[in-house]
Design brief:
alpha/beta; nine-stranded mixed beta sheet; 11 helices; 15 strands; 33% helix; globular
């Protein structure tokens, strides 16, 4: 196989869990360079990778063609532009940037350089997200009228991560963090909305960045989509609720790839590597063709983040489609920016 030499801009949680294991196990990639500013933690698992003390040093010295920008969001614009300037293709973590203007500038610059820019929207490869996509494609719910997507946690104490919790840091808070997933999923399911209304604030108080948001997306044909997240949710809600003219579908958030990777699981190339479900994780309740009610317990199929890197490899080698290209994810940043504006001004913001 053609080998894609790849550099990782950080070896924190994201690098250890979401990127390095997949790059190591995929036969088409070689994780040849890793940035660690003060430690050498990657040596044990990735002894063949050269450690650099800064992104600048890696870009100057490393023989790589793909760079993964997985640093705090406040640095995404700087490091992505720097990598593009050095002639490297780029994968940048979500959220893409802190605002839409930065995203648009990077997409334009990548096009000018003839390089690709992909945003790592890994939740498109979650089992629960894919199950909802499957149910929608079957058409059993009829014309959709209402949907809700939630990503809740119970984290009532500060994490101590300044880039995520400092209210003065642009791009900090749950809206950019978890909201980047929910907004992306809504756009993938339903397209770009006409307008929105949002409530974004910090339940822990003004000393911290937003940890709660609720966004109502307005679509044609009277469809409303609600995106919601809270860190004060001890008992889980259904993560996805869809209600249509012919029925409803409720889906739990059951993808466990992140937890399994954190516990040391090794993703196997070409196979479903996650643990199987022990019980059903969804409820489909609908009127069948005879107008009779059918209520079915559903079980989602395994998700696999390896598929993202397989898509990247096929794009580089065969010219197949690029997963979550920057030009597409600009739409997500427009929604996030508009949600901040809506909450700040307490009004509906027109998008189209």
């Amino acid at each position: 196989m053609q080998l894609i030499k790849t550099g990782l801009c950080a070896f924190g949680m994201s690098g250890k869990i979401f990127h390095a294991p997949f790059l190591k196990e995929h036969p088409g990639f070689f994780l040849s360079s890793i940035v660690e500013r003060s430690k050498e933690e990657s040596k044990e698992k990735y002894p063949d990778a050269t450690i650099y003390s800064s992104v600048e040093e890696m870009l100057e010295k490393a023989d790589i063609e793909l760079v993964i920008v997985n640093t705090p969001v406040q640095t995404h614009f700087e490091y992505t532009r720097m990598a593009l300037e050095a002639g490297k293709n780029v994968i940048v973590e979500k959220p893409f940037t802190v605002n839409v203007s930065e995203a648009e500038e990077l997409v334009k610059f990548a096009e000018e350089k003839g390089l690709f820019l992909s945003v790592y929207q890994n939740r498109r490869f979650d089992r629960d997200y894919l199950q909802v996509q499957k149910i929608m494609s079957e058409g059993k719910l009829g014309t959709l009228k209402e949907a809700e997507i939630r990503f809740d946690r119970f984290r009532t104490e500060p994490s101590g991560k300044n880039h995520k919790e400092n209210p003065e840091a642009t791009g900090s808070g749950s809206l950019h963090d978890l909201g980047a997933h929910l907004v992306d999923q809504a756009v993938q399911y339903f397209g770009f909305p006409e307008k929105l209304f949002a409530d974004v604030f910090s339940m822990k108080g003004r000393a911290y960045a937003n940890d709660y948001f609720e966004i109502i997306l307005y679509y044609p044909d009277q469809l409303r989509v609600r995106l919601k997240s809270s860190v004060f949710t001890k008992e889980a809600h259904y993560a996805y609720s869809l209600h249509g003219k012919n029925g409803s579908f409720l889906q739990q958030r059951t993808d466990n790839q992140e937890n399994e990777l954190a516990a040391g699981a090794i993703p196997v190339y070409g196979q479903d590597w996650t643990l199987p479900l022990k019980e059903a994780d969804g409820i489909l309740n609908f009127l069948n063709e005879h107008s009779e009610t059918e209520r079915v317990l559903t079980s989602s199929e395994p998700g696999n983040y390896m598929n993202y890197y397989q898509n990247i490899y096929e794009h580089i080698v065969f010219g197949y489609y690029l997963p979550s290209p920057g030009g597409e994810v600009i739409q997500n940043m427009k929604i996030i920016d508009a949600a901040m504006e809506s909450s700040r001004e307490s009004r509906i913001v027109q998008l189209t």
